[in-house]
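My main concern about presentation is that the manuscript never shows what a single data entry looks like. Each protein is reduced to its one-letter sequence and a matching series of backbone shape codes. For the editor and my fellow referees, an illustration may be useful. For illustration, here is how one protein appears when written out as sequence plus structure tokens:
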Amino acid sequence: MKIYLSNLNESWVVDRFREDWYKNNQSISTEKISKADIVWIISPWTWKKINKKYLKNKKVLCSIYHIDFEKFNDIDKDEFYQRDQFVDEYHVISLKTKQQLRQLTDKKITSIPFWIDQNLFFEIKNKAALREKYGFKKNDFIIGSFQRDTEGSDLSSPKLIKGPDIFLEITKDLVKSNKEIKILLTGKRRQFLINNFKKYSVPYKYYEMVDIEVINELYNILDLYIVTSRIEGGPQAILECAITKTPILSTDVGVASEILHEDSIFKVDSFDDAKTNIMYAFKQVQEFKIPIGMKKHLALLNSIYEN
């Protein structure tokens, strides 16, 4: 069995998953699609870059991350069914996306969250030194958000499925009652929050694009990470917080209910009632560490190959 993963080159987290796969599964993977038995469309929009003769003649697995039905127009639906005719099975990374996808296809759907590399994301004990390294005080209460929040190239319209407006309202209220709160942002397209933090005098620090080593260190200085998304496939930040023992609260999206304690999942109007549970999340994430989490995907691919 030889597996080819579609290429992205988009500086997205899925690029990292593709790189992880090839690094850890060299004997069964190929960069030449002509030599593959299975084509894994790991990012659904990359299917157009693939010669259709390969999609017709090989087994095809396609990953779907989330579906925003409010924006799922006739063009999106037409593209889905154009691609669907070539797909043998689907992979999703959360049970919620599986429910969404089931509305569009009768083909087999397997839900497996992506793996987490415990050699890249891990707890660092000396948090005081880390805080000093990044210019935070001992008494600062640091709240993190490491994902994009604007919709497009205008860098002003909020990407509402990611919930930056919810994050803004929560942090505005928190800052009013605790002057030691500082917000820590990373990633591209954070202008919606940055502009509003300036407007409402919410103290923050921003690291636009940083490498994995720095991201791991930044997780380790947080007192709290908040996911405020309305729709998500992952987000991978949930697994990254879990493995680094970073306190996290999340809306009920993506893999949240599969990794986090129910007390750590909040509704917008009841954020104050949510409670972090570090050890519960840490225990749940163990089954997704490399190589265990990767073997779950390998079993899926074996099943497709044998059938």
